[in-house]
Amino acid sequence: MGTTNKKERNFIFPKNFLWGASISSYQTEGNNFNSDWWKWEQEGKTKGKSGIACDYWSKYEQDHDLLSELGASAFRLSLEWSRIEPEEGNFSDSAIRHYREMLQDLKNRNIKTVVTFWHWTSPVWFQDKFGFDQKQSVEIFSRYGTKISDELGDLIDVAVIVNEPAMPLFFGFLLGKFPPGKINPVSFFKASSNLAEAYRNIFNYIKEKRSGIPVGISSLYNFFEPKNKWNPIHMLLSWGGKKIWNEFFISKIKGKMDYFGLDYYFHDRMGTFGIENENKKITEIGWEIYPEGILEVLREINMKYDLPIYILENGLSDSTDRHRPEFITEHLFYVKKAIEEGIPIRGYFYWSLLDNFEWLHGYGPRFGLVEINYETLERKPRKSFYVYKEIIKKNGIG
Ligand code: BGC
Questions:
Q1: Is a pLDDT exceeding 80 seen at residue 149?
Q2: Which of 160, 222, 378, 394 would you label with 200, given CA atoms 20 to 30 Å apart?
Q3: Residues whose CB is less than 8 angstroms from the CB of residue 174 and which lie 6 or more positions away in sequence, other chains included
Q4: Helix, strand or coil for residue 144?
Q5: Angle at 300 (CA atoms; ends 296, 306), nearest 5 degrees
Q6: How distant is the alpha carbon of residue 180 from its chain centre?
């Protein structure tokens, strides 16, 4: 995989650089039976069902112990809308209290809280009665977001209002793969502008009430490039990919992001027949491992948006942990290069702390620094956990 030599691998990150890992509520908490994804699973649309997942909901202290052991200075987790508002307009005090305890526990450990308000899952009532393609969704989602700010804002260090909007919009409204399972361009455009409008409302509200919290989204931002940079078709496809996949939603919330949240996983080398990657290295689920691409996207993002950057997700599915240590080291090598070029990168979050429910793929893929035994729910840090721990301790490599 690597192009880096031994000497180049000695590097120290800036002081106060945030080191973290990410999870999401639906993928780890378990028993989110009021969620549209739960319904989706019962309808047989996923490979297996999420069930109790990692039971992070009740085992969170154990997982926070692991974070402390890792030396993480930040943790990214998400809130489950269907727990917080199980019925339309009825907010659950006990769920809010539980999230307060979780966040407080992180604070007590001196771990900064990076909190995603919506990581794709909605309450069943919302999906049945409204959905993001309906205009009322703006008011409903904005009400949820402002409620979070009121109830939990004092415990939030960074707010991520929406995780990777491209995924639920494209997969939910154009490809029919995620709830609500539509294949309808009109719905897609309506849902995109409604979600963006609600985002802007929540952004404005937090700026007014809790101005200290940086607010933004996390973006799945792929490295698109033409296979042959002299071929007009390749160039067009690469340009189009960027516009449609990377920039479509962001263009609707311009000027309303305090930081850029990057989720980097993919390299898309566009040839005449679409993506034509060399695939010298691929993960267990067939994704190309392409660490140098993170430098390219960091440069692009810096030029376009001129904002502080948090890398909020980067990781791979690797059940044997054979590639993960090098994967992390290689990506960080390019992140450091970007910092040396003056790009203001404030933190790196590995996806994921724990193995978890990988949406349509079910429990097959294993992204965790920590292995979960799904029979016993036992947690077992992998070798890469200790490699990452060492990097955090040294604030670098070498
Ligand atoms: C999502 C996660 C997902 C991960 C790996 C990201 O796109 O935010 O929920 O598990 O990628 O596929």
A1: yes
A2: 222
A3: 182, 183, 184, 185, 188
A4: helix
A5: 135
A6: 20
- Ligand 1 centre distance from Cα of residue 203 (Å): 23
If you measure from the C-alpha of residue 22 to the centroid of ligand 1, how many angstroms do you get, rounded to a whole number?
10
**Residue 334 pLDDT > 50:** yes
225: CA distance to ligand 1 center in Å? 22
CA-based nearest residue to 293, from 351, 224, 352, 369: 224
Query: Which residue CA neighbors atom 12 of ligand 1 most closely?
Result: 358
Supply the pLDDT for residue 2: 47
In sequence order, what DSSP letters do the residues of 262-316 get, joined into one string?
EE---EEEEETTEE----SSB-TTS-B--THHHHHHHHHHHHHH---EEEEE---
CA distance 295 to 167: 23
In the β-sheet with 223-226, what is the strand arrangement from edge to edge? 223-226, 267-271, 274-275
What's the mean pLDDT in 355-374?
A: 98
Which amino acid would we find at residue 158? Answer: V
For range 162-183, the mean pLDDT = 98
Please choose, from the candidates 295, 203, 191, the residue with its C-alpha nearest in 3D space to the C-alpha of residue 253.
Answer: 203
163: alpha, beta or left? (left if phi > 0; alpha if psi -120 to 50): beta
Q: What pLDDT, on the 0 to 100 scale, is given for residue 11? A: 87
Query: pLDDT grade, residue 1 (50/70/90)?
Result: very low
To test ligand 1's pocket by mutation, which of 35, 46, 313 has the most ligand atoms within 8 angstroms of CB? Answer: 313
Mean pLDDT of 372-386: 98
CB 263 within 8 A of CB 220: yes
**Helix, strand, coil distribution of the chain in percent, nearest 5:** 45, 20, 40
